[in-house]
Amino acid sequence: MEITIWSYFFCLLGAALAGMINTFAGNGSVITLSLLTEVLGLPGQMANGTNRIGVFFQGIGSATGFAKSGISMGKQSLQPIIVTILGAIAGVITVLEISNEDFLFVFKWAMVVMLVVVLIQPEKWISKENHLKTYNPWVSIPIFFIIGFYGGFLQMGAGILLLAVFVLLSGYNIITANALKNIVILVYTAIVLVLFAWNKQMNWGMGLILASGQTAGGYLSARYLTKVADIEKWSYRLLVIVILIALASQFGVF
Q1: Which of 1, 149, 230, 236 is buried most deeply by CB count within 10 Å?
Q2: How far apart are CA 100 and CA 85, in angstroms?
Q3: How far is CA 244 from CA 31, 180, 248, 253, in A?
Q4: Residue 164 confidence (pLDDT)
């Protein structure tokens, strides 16, 4: 596969789009993983590790933005951080033991599942209202571990799953839930990065190119696009389109 300067430019724009999607919903890794495997030609395992570079740097930008907005997590983030870290470590250890072909198989079918999840009750994904609930820690702790495992294994869609748990089970409002989601992902991604790097499953050059796009996209969208009318609806539609395109590519439609 020939990689040209236009390939990198296209990846930079795609990463910026991923950063924007992650800002409003999550699942931007659908774009970045597809770029790394389909455009830049990285093997599945290498793409999975390289993708975490952008996730980490975008997490720093998002966490900094929330902190400057006066949103403090305090002790409420301790439990989900610890549990998801344990799950993420287990997930990374598992994914490092499988082949590139097995990873791409999981990646492809995970996108199918994610499309179904996104299409179910779309009004909940675009709603601006909060419906707070209490939660049972005996239920939430296993869920956090499973999401952490999934995040360590693949990452794609982990933000959406965390956001759903924090809002629907933990009872946080959507703003606090987003801030908490970013902190949890940032912390466990830092550990995941070390594990992938230790096993030489990263391309730092390609990863930093995508990271710059993701960070810029996240910042600019949070700074300006939040003022656009019905941005939740447009973000949701964009998310569905991105998943459909990625699925079409993985299943050989084009």
Answers
A1: 149
A2: 24
A3: 11, 29, 6, 11
A4: 74
Structural contact between residues 17 and 217, judged by C-beta atoms closer than 8 angstroms: yes
Q: Could you tell me if residue 1 is inside a domain?
A: no
CB 207 within 8 A of CB 54: yes
Closest CA to 64 of 174, 211, 219, 209: 219
Number of compact structural domains in the chain:
1
The secondary element (H helix, E strand) that includes residue 65 is helix 44-68
pTM: 0.78
Six-digit token pair at 109? 């079918």
> What SS3 class is residue 23?
helix
Query: For residues 227 and 175, what is the distance between their CA atoms, to the nearest angstrom?
Result: 16
DSSP for residue 118 = H
Q: Which helix (H) or strand (E) holds 119?
A: helix 100-119
With respect to residue 198, please indicate whether it lies within any of the assigned structural domains.
yes
Q: Does any domain span residue 236?
A: yes
Mean pLDDT across 158-171: 74
Other Cβ atoms within 10 Å of 161 Cβ, number: 20
Residue 1: pLDDT over 60: no
| Token pair recorded at residue 161 | 């799953």
Helices (H), the chain: 5-24, 29-34, 44-68, 78-95, 100-119, 122-126, 137-153, 158-168, 174-198, 204-223, 231-250
For residue 234, being part of any structural domain is answered with: yes
**In degrees to the nearest 10, what's the CA dihedral of 187, 191, 197, 198?**
170
Nearest to 54 by CA among 205, 243, 240: 205
